[in-house]
Amino acid sequence: MDGNSETAAASGLGRLWQGLSSGEQIATLIILTALVILLLYIWADRARADATGASRLVGWIGIRDLAPWQARILGIVFLAFAVLFFLALLTSFLVVGGVFLAGFSGTTPAQSLGLGALLVALLGAPFLIWRSVVAQKTVDVTEQGLITDRINAAVASLGEEKTRGTGDAVETVPNMEVRIGAIYALERIARENLDFHVQIMEILCAYIRENSPAASAEPLHMPEMPEDDVETPREAWERWKQGYEDESGAWHDGLLQALENLRSRIKPRTDIQTALEVLGRRTKAQRSREAGWPDPKQDGVFVYDKRFPEPSAISSRYWAGFFALMRERRNELRQYAGYRPDLRNTNLQDYDLRELELNGFRLSCAMMQGARLSDTKLGGAYLWGVDMLGARAKQCYMQSARLQKAKMCGVTLIDAQMQEASLQDAEMHGADVTAAQMQWTQMQGTNLRQAKMEGVDLSGAQMSEDTNLTAATLRGAAVRLVDETTSAQLRQHWPDIFADGSVPVPPEERPAHWPAFEMDNDEFLAEWREWQADPDAYTPPDPPAR
């Protein structure tokens, strides 16, 4: 539109405005003001929308669980109705204003009757709206009562029992069918009514704690551990793990046989397994509501849904980029103040927890021997003193998990993501952490005797003089940015690991395959992989020219 067209349009609007009577002008200003107020309310309503994008206005009129495309169509329909409503309201104001300003002279009885009906309708509109609001509040109260009744009925079913057997052999046992149905009913209520989500999670956690306490765990008969000063520690620890036959031909069970014996004595309960699966498949909307706790109606950011940055995704300077993101991620996790499901002091022996969402859970002192944890998400979880001897946790996500004093003998953590994990004083002898990501892990006092750590990334790891690496295997591991204490603890493994100039080692003691300068990310990863492919033929690059 050119300047002349804009001037003509403005002139036309001016003439149209001047052609209106004073009553019509007042009515038009009132309608426009009301329209602006409505638009501002709709904008504020969208700004207050929850983490799922659901509008409170849409929820108030009783519509929930809309897909984005459905919400857009509904918005267009509402907009069309709003335009029609305001046109009708504008017309009414113009008619009524004309009557009051021009007087009633010349009006017929029929016109007077119509105008009277219009006035009655306009005067009654606010009361009709108020009645609708009151009716909606009544519906809300009734709905809340019905949900409470459903929850109470489901909770009552969680204690359902039945008798089996005849005569003197009659016994009372949990009615698994009814209890499982109650657990699924609670899951549905929690998904459909987020205001009750955290309370339902509390109910399920309490059910697991009460029906599967740590005291009910079967004992694991561990083989006797060898001393550190034996002549062949690696062979001794291998016998401890695999079992062996002595000179007289008698067989002595190792850790693997002890775990198999334990599994033969364990029978996980179906209702507990179901409850664990419900806890572990919470939707994104449910996790957002947990992040807003203790306000049951407030959503927040569930920080554990955001993965740790991966070194391969950083193309700039390695430490300036990757570890800056690591620190930022760590601070986000530490500042999380939302709800954490509580499964402390529970018996989870041999339960199937694969691929479940357990980030941030409280699992301290839980008995998890032999548990299946492959691809399980345990980021930021509280695992102080947990007993997961022999657990299978391949590709488990345990970033920033707190594993102080955890018992992890014989655990399988191949390809696990353990960045920033706290492993102080943990018992990990015989563990398999091959190719695990353990950047910036805290390993002061960790017992890693006979641990299999091939290909593990220990960049930035922190060890102390009490960290025990006796008979551990670190072939193909990588180390960067560690302090002198950590470097000293790894001294006996220097020939088996790859490091660059960031590791404090005297020049005369530096292994020949270690580059003497600090590399950036891409170069370090490339050189590490090249060395892993053929250690004997590898030649470290020369320092860059300055």
Account of the 3D structure:
It is a single chain. This protein is mainly α. It is 44% helix and 4% strand. The chain has 14 helices and 8 strands. It has a two-stranded antiparallel sheet with strand order 1-2. Strands 3-4 form a two-stranded antiparallel sheet. Strand 7, helix 13 and strand 8 form a beta-alpha-beta unit. Helix 6 runs parallel beside helix 10. The longest helix has 50 residues. The protein is flat, with a radius of gyration of 35 Å. The two termini are 61 Å apart. 33% of the residues are buried. About 2% of the residues have low confidence.
Indicate the topology.
Elements: H1 3-18, H2 22-47, H3 56-60, H4 68-102, H5 109-158, E1 161-164, E2 171-174, H6 176-192, H7 197-211, H8 233-242, E3 244-245, E4 251-252, H9 255-265, H10 270-280, H11 284-291, H12 318-334, E5 442-443, E6 462-463, E7 477-479, H13 484-489, E8 497-499, H14 521-533
Parallel strand pairs: 5-6, 7-8
Antiparallel strand pairs: 1-2, 3-4
Low-confidence runs: 50-54, 312-318
- What's the tally of helices? 14
Tell me the structural class: mainly alpha
- Tally of strands: 8
**Estimated share of beta-strand residues:** under 5%
Quick check: average pLDDT?
79
Q: Report how far apart the termini are.
A: 61 Å
Helix content range of the residues, please? 40-55%
Can I get a quick summary?
The chain is mainly alpha-helical and 546 residues long. It contains 14 helices and 8 strands. The strands form 4 sheets. The protein has a two-stranded antiparallel ribbon with strand order 1-2.
